[in-house]
Write the structure tokens for this entry.
Amino acid sequence: MKSFPYFQLLTLLMMAGSLVFFWECVSYLSRRDYVAAGMLTLIGLFTMWAGGELARLALAERSA
Amino acid sequence: MTLWPAALGLNLWLLTIGVPALLGPRPRGPVLVLLPLAPLLLLWLLRPAARGARLVLLLGVPLATFLPVLDGPLAHAMLHPRPVVALQAAVLIGYLWTTSRALAPAPSTPPATTLPDSDVPWRWRRRVQIYRLLVAYSIVAPALLLYALLLDPETQRAFRLSFETPERIAGVQAAALSALALLWTTAFHFFLAGPLVSHLLHDRTTAAQIATLRRQARTGRPRPQFYIAMVLAVLSMAMLIHRSLFP
């Protein structure tokens, strides 16, 4: 029986989450709050990094 | 065949330095030392398989040709009219093209025979299509960036508004063009040529990475980098919340 693809789902969630952070970053930029926009960019990048790590696991799990 | 690279290299040197040095003011100091460097570096064409020949011919010759006219008496705009600059660009492209061909190692396998289209497997045709697309992309993408930087009316208007004199605009455009060339070369080397070379070597590095990845996946736990990224993300969120609560 094929196991539930937790890592794939989590990867998708993390990537979508990082996009939300980037979207928020743009809205802060339009309000000229550059510090908050910078912090949101960092959060988006870190979330994407974590998503990338999970994607590696999902890929390995899939090809195993 | 080293005749074409030698001829084009010498022509490039003549157009860029030779004629301006004859017609313009006499160069002095370091420029005088640099003047005969490019023709001397072209001697590497006699030994294309020698160590460092690629670096010398593809980078050293153009640098030694253009460095003396960057600044000083030979850099005067009168000595480099627009038609000559266009010709220089064409000769430079020709030189780089023919030199690359001369430096490429001779194929060790016998020449391939062309199969009729019906006999070519679909995956091979798809691969050839990808290579053609990459060639097209390598031409179209830099051309688009060049257009955006040098010809796009909106960009030109923005340049005119931001920088007052034509000299400053030209300087900024030249700097941006260099940055663009550097960016594109880096992207091409790492993201286009890199994967293709890796594929030609049967993706050994990728296969080794996947094997390591599988070993890690058996543990069912992510690498430490995952935890570092999560901690950094949570810390950044905490800082953002703190900043919102106590502005």
Residues 34-63 of chain A form the longest helix (30 residues).
